[in-house]
Amino acid sequence: MAEARQEAPGRAPEQRVGGVDRFFKITERGSDFATEIRGGLVTFVTMAYIVILNPIILTSSADIAGTTLDFQAVSAVTALTAGVMTILFGLISRLPFGFAAGLGINAFLAFSVVGQVTWPEAMAIVVINGVLIVLLAATGLRRMIFDAVPVELKLAITVGIGLFIAFIGFVNAGFVTSTGSPSPPVGLGVGGSIFTIPTLVFVITLVLTAVLMAAQVKGGLLIGLVSGTVISVIIESIWHLGAAVDTPGGWGLTVPALGSAPFSLPDFSLVGAISFDLGRVGIVTVIMLVFTLLFTNFFDAMGTMTGLSREAGLADEQGNFPNLKSALVVEGFGAIAGGFTSSSSNTVFIESGAGIGEGARTGFANLITGGMFLLAMFFTPLTQIVPTEVAAAALVLVGALMMAQIKHIDLGDFRVLLPVFLTVAVMPMTYSIANGIGAGFVAWVLVHALSGRASRIHWLLWIVAGGFVLYFARGPIEAMLGVAG
User: Fold this and answer.
1) Which of 63, 92, 107, 115 is the most buried (most CB within 10 A)?
2) pLDDT at site 132
3) Burial (0-12, 13-18, 19+ Cβ within 10 Å), 236
4) Are 427 and 435 in contact (CB under 8 A)?
5) What is the pLDDT of residue 296?
6) Among candidates 72, 447, 432, 463, which has minimal Cα distance to 268?
7) pLDDT 10s digits, 66-106
């Protein structure tokens, strides 16, 4: 006979949570459904530009056969892959990290790889890269490399990513621009001043959102982004600024105006358009291309996940976070999926920090972000309403939040100071997470080894540092091997 359940006298009834809550550990991580939904929406808003930017990059170059990709088709598969991979990652790893086409890799494909192969062959190389990443993760080697990284470098990666995404935000907003001169290479706005209305909107959004966050207003980041978008739509309806490519002083990437036809059916013609017939370029070229993709994909993702997990308060003192192995495996499948759909390798997006800054702590937020991407396939014009300048404000604020991790690094030892400094500085200066990680790894090994502390360097760190030396020298190596640049 079943006994009736009674609460112990003097004890408050324990909190009961539903199956979804338990699965994602929402309450356990100090979050709630409303916060996760807001976080998922904020992550999507800051990532939505990829639905437009990825096709801009991938359609800008013809391949060796003179073929270019269709813009609408690339936009559709970009949203499709981002949505599916974001949801899959949320369900398996239960972490609030959004997925989409990696910006470094898509540019590498468009401006380097397709000069030697066709687009279907280039995407096949992306798939090969993804298979290798999955094997490294599944065998535990990727986790071993992750564990071999000193905690100081893991923290430095977080700080470096913070500065990197803040720099991306400043550039996307037109707050920082190229001067076209060797010295200084960049400057404030145009001629040392804020020149355009869109950049002014960035400043207004930044200040408004910062005040809301400082006042600890729930949903402050989302409120700031929505407010900035509404202001942008009103400004565009009055002054008709248009796009910067057509009108000086216009909006950078997306014009905040409602179109007459917000709905369109997605074009999935690029799904499965890959070819493994790589005989024309030779094995040496294929190896070098895969090597470059592998290093960029591998360490960009590792660094991003390290930074985001620390920002979310999910990492331990050594930088490890929940479901690490499954997260690394799924990230590899992002490359496979991106190659198969011709959207380029999909990886964790540093913009996920915006959702984390809003309070997202679990994979439930990914269901919201991924669902929005799947909807974006049908409402591509609506994804263009949020101007780049508004999303840029969120990136700067998240970068500031991630910068706070530097307080946990003891910089009293120069053996630590120099690698940390190089990791943090090289990322934004070279526009690459992988470059910053590589500079930090190589510096750590060299400084410790040549100052009498070689025994303290993990053997895997030696191998990884050596690999980065080859990565940095790949240009001369390709020239020596006769591989076309």
Assistant:
1) 63
2) 95
3) buried
4) yes
5) 73
6) 72
7) 999 988 899 899 999 999 999 999 999 999 999 999 876 88
Residue 320 backbone class (left: φ over 0; alpha: ψ -120 to 50; beta: rest): beta
The alpha carbon torsion through 202, 369, 106, 72 (nearest 10 deg) reads -90
φ and ψ of 262, to 5 deg: -75, -15
Could you tell me which of 194, 197, 210, 202 has the C-alpha nearest to residue 173?
Answer: 202
Which residues neighbour 240 within 8 Å (Cβ) at sequence distance 6 or greater? none
Q: What pLDDT sits at residue 16?
A: 60
Six-digit token string for 324: 């690490």
Which amino acid is located at 171 in the chain? V
Residue 280 CB neighbours (<10 A): 11
- Output b/e per residue, 292-310; b: 16+ Cβ within 10 A: bbbbbbbbbbbbbbbbbbb
Q: What pLDDT does 41 receive?
A: 95
Residues composing the chain: 485
**Among all chains, which residue has been given the structure tokens 């468009």?**
110
Nearest to 448 by CA among 408, 406, 413: 413
Measured between alpha carbons, how far is 432 from 163 in angstroms, rounded to an integer?
A: 11
59, with CB counted inside 10 A (0-12, 13-18, 19+), is middle
Asked if the bond preceding 262 is cis, omega within 30° of 0, the reply is no
Give pLDDT < 50 ranges for the chain: 1-14, 485
pLDDT number for residue 47: 87
Token pair of 148 as six digits = 């071999």
Maximal CA-CA distance, the chain: 85
Q: Which of 322, 402, 412 lies closest to 361, judged by CA?
A: 322
CB 176 within 8 A of CB 167: yes
